[in-house]
Amino acid sequence: MNRNCVIIVAAGKGARMKANINKQFLNLKDKPILYWTLKVFEKSNYVDEIILVLAKDEIEYCKSYIIDKYKVKKIKKIVEGGSTRQQSVINGLNAVGECNVVLIHDGARPFINDDIINEGIKYANLYGACACGVVPKDTIKIKEKSGFSMETPKRNTLFCVQTPQCFKYEIILESHKKAYKEKFEATDDTMIVEKYNHKVFLYNGSYSNIKITTPEDLIIGEKILDNSEEVLT
Hints:
8 helices; alpha/beta; two-stranded antiparallel ribbon; 11 strands; 7-stranded mixed sheet; Spore Coat Polysaccharide Biosynthesis Protein SpsA, Chain A; single chain; globular; 35% helix
């Protein structure tokens, strides 16, 4: 078996966007953000199927206005999201069938590319767990509660983690099951596998692989699309 599956998590409400709809359904170049995300995986030769995790009250809307409208064929299952991102990922993992590598990706991160997907699958097969990302451009400070700077880590030791985060299926599934049982809460999936003694290989993502989170990100996203022939074709 050499099947690769991506779980696209799109159940969050995105409060920082301050919009009256889920941020994944806001438009970039007259098409929803989630459309652009799905399109990359739909076209990828490295991904066999997509599992889409959505809020319960948005499933029918997404089917009509994105999946059916734009003929996304690789979506094998649509799963109802949970109360947290972590629960949404568990729901997605439980829906996976036969699969070797699982990629977990943010629905609001539309500028992923095929090279990053391919590298993630390669390193997941080699090491069991990996994540893409970039070295921060800014100097990072560790701040005390009082507001003063406590420490300045060396920038070349820091890494801004993006998605997809890629895993051998049995590793991420078992780690999530343990975390659920022990009520361990994490901000991303690499934290969960690290908790259960799996090392995570970090590889180069892209500074363009941003997550659309705030209104300012929509402006940046429009510029990225303007300059990206690959995404627009």
